[in-house]
Amino acid sequence: MFPPALELRSVTKTYGDFMAVDDLSLAVPTGCVFGFLGPNGAGKTTCLRMILEIIRPTSGSITVLGSPSSLAIRERIGYLPEEKGLYKKMKAWAIIAYFATLKGLSRSAAKLRAFQLLERYGLKDFAEAKTEALSKGMGQKVQVLAAIAHDPEFVILDEPFSGLDPVNQTVMEEIITDLRARGRTVIFSTHVMAHAERLCDRLSIIAKGRKLFDGTLVEAHRSLPRRVRLQTEDNVEPLRALPEVANVVNQPNGLWELELKPGADGQAVLQSCFAQQIRLRAFNFDKPTLHDVFVKLVGPDAKEAAFR
After folding, report:
1. pLDDT at 1
2. What global pTM score does this model have?
3. What does the pLDDT look like over 60-118, one tens digit per residue?
4. Residue 257 pairs with which residues in a beta bridge?
5. Mode of pairing for the β-strands spanning 210-216 and 202-207
6. Residue 74 placed within a domain
7. pLDDT score, position 98
8. Is residue 247 part of a domain?
9. Are residues 146 and 14 in the same domain?
10. Residue 143 near residue 129 (C-beta atoms within 8 A)
11. Which of the listed residues 38, 54, 157, 231 has the most CB atoms within 10 Å of its CB?
12. pLDDT tens track for 122-140
């Protein structure tokens, strides 16, 4: 079994009296896609910068690919910062090749790699274009390709989906999926749960610098009770007495949400509706989404993230 690609042990970061990261511990398995989730201002970027030694923790320790210093193994790491930017007068292929040479590739190998990546991810026709002529989405893809041009083992992407249209978001997901298929470890931060739900093998949710959840997607779903949502104009009071039902909440427009007890089957609720002659306009029984888990754990801070 491979050792973790990343370990944080009781990491804390303070700025004066402000606690940016509070006693954070986590481990990222080698070869997985790890989602670092939280609302804006949760401490995600601060954590990623500490991992890269851009800033240092106030206390605690960090190990990356078995090394206590990411700077010592920087040629094995790829990084997309939250602040995106490119040299405007350089051509797209030249940007990618330049960053590859900084990580040890020869000029010829770097140029070949740049054109391969541009073709692979739909930018071949823009290889000779100056980056100032590229759209925001294309420019961001070029910057991501520059971050992985040297074929790093460990890739850190800080808010990689920010500002991308749906088409380019799909391309970004493809890049991450391809990295995982080749055994690379990817950690990305986001406050958009849909990307994490599709991509992540494991994830951690933080808010106000503190870890609220750390585990697999399945474990995240299991952290909340399953629910039945139904719509009817009839009386639903008989459903409150069902042994499967823990709570019933009335919502607008004749909607009702029934929180089920652990292990309960939603089919029993449906059968009871038929038996009680409750006429249904809609009936839905499904597992909680990652968005539901996020909102429950993060609380009011999740509302800000939902609007960004």
Report:
1. 62
2. 0.85
3. 999 999 999 999 999 999 999 988 778 889 999 999 999 999 999 999 999 999 999 99
4. 229, 249
5. antiparallel
6. no
7. 95
8. yes
9. no
10. no
11. 38
12. 899 999 999 889 888 888 8
Structural domain of 173:
1-65+153-224+288-308
Contact 108, 100 (CB under 8 A): no
**How many structural domains does the chain have?**
3
Residue 70 belongs to a domain:
no
Output the domain CATH number for residue 8: 3.40.50.300
